[in-house]
Amino acid sequence: MITTYLKREFHYSKDLFLIKNKLETWELEPVEGKSVVSSNSEHYAHIELKIYKNQEDRNFIDWKITNEQIPHEIGYKEVVEKVLKFFIAYLEALRGENLGLIFEINNGSFKKYEDTKRDDFNRATFLALINCFDKTNEDFRKEIFPKKSGNEYTKEYLSKSFKEKIEQSLMDENVINEIQKILINIEKSSIIDLLNIQGRDQLAEIITSKLNRPKIYDLFEKGILTKYGDLTLVGLSHILKYYGEFDLKKIMPL
Fold first, then answer.
1. Which of 105, 121, 144 is the last residue of a domain?
2. Rounded to whole angstroms, how far apart are CA atoms 117 and 115?
3. Statement to judge: residues 71 and 111 lie in one domain
4. Same domain, 127 and 23
5. pTM value?
6. What's the CA gap between 7 and 210, in Å, rounded?
7. Are residues 24 and 119 in the same domain?
8. What is the DSSP string of the chain?
C-alpha cells in the first residue's frame, strides 16, 4: 500500500468563505481589490487587481504593470496565477457554471532589500480577491508604504524606515545582552566567512542549535529571528556589531 502526502498549497483559501454569499450572487460587474502583506517589516507583497466578465468563455490575466513591479523570474507571477486559477475553480463550483473572467493586475510591488517570500504574494492575492467583495476586510495600510509618482512605492522610504529600525535595536541593551549570551562561546574565527548577508542562513542554524523553543520565540519577539527561526537583518546587524564587522551598507546596499 502506498500513501501519498497531499501538501496544502493554499493556506488562505478558507478565507474565501467570508465572501461565499457575495460570490454566489455576483452579477459579474467589474470589482476592484487591493492588499499589502508584510512580515516583521523586512519584506512585503502588494497587489491591486480588477475583475470583470470576459465575453468569451475563457479566462485571462492582463498584466498592466512592469516586470520590475512583480517579477516573473523569481516566481511571484506564478504564485499570483495559481491563486487566480484556484479562485476561478472555486467560483465555478459555487455557481455551477463555467465563467470567462479578465483579471487586470493594475499595480504591485515588493520589498527589494529582503527577499519577499512567495507566500506573501499568495496571501496578498487572496486578500485582494476578498477585498473586491468585502471592503470591511481592508488590509491595505497606505501610511506604511507611501506612494511616489502615483503608482510605485518608494525604495528610499523602505530603506530609511528599516535603517531606523536597525539603529534603534542596536541601542537596545536588553537585545544586546541576549546576543552577547549567545555569542560569547562562539569564536569569531570559526564563523568569519559567514559574517555577511550571504552567510545568514548558516549563522541562523548555528545560533538556533544552541537554543530551546522558548528562547527562539523570545528572540522572535525581539526581532532577531523570524517565527521560522531565520535570522532577520536586525539580528544579523547585532551579530556583525558584536564581532566588530557591522557596516549598514553590507546589510542594505543602496
1. 144
2. 6
3. yes
4. yes
5. 0.56
6. 30
7. yes
8. --------S-TTGGGGGGGHHHHHH-----EEEEEEEEETTTEEEEEEEEEEE-SSS--EEEE-S-TTTS-TTTTHHHHHHHHHHHHHHHHHHHHTS---EEEEEEEEEE-SSSPPPHHHHHHHHHHHHHHHH-GGG----TTTS-EETTTEEPHHHHHHHHHHHHHHHTT-HHHHHHHHHHHTTS-HHHHGGG-SGGGHHHHHHHHHTT--HHHHHHHHHTTSB-TTSPBPHHHHHHHHHHTT---HHHHS--
| In a domain? residue 2 | no
pLDDT in tens, 96-147: 999 999 999 999 888 754 455 677 888 889 999 999 998 875 554 444 444 4
207 burial (CB, 10 Å; 0-12 / 13-18 / 19+) is buried
Same domain as 207, residue 108: no
- Of the pLDDT bands very low, low, confident and very high (cuts 50, 70, 90), residue 252 is low
Q: Are 205 and 193 in contact (CB under 8 A)?
A: no
In-domain check, residue 149: no
Domain end, chosen from 119, 144, 169, is at: 144
CA separation for the pair 44, 228 (Å, rounded): 16
**Cα Rg of the chain (Å, integer):** 22
pLDDT tens digits along 180-212: 988 888 888 888 888 887 888 888 888 888 788
**In a shared domain, residues 17 and 139:** yes
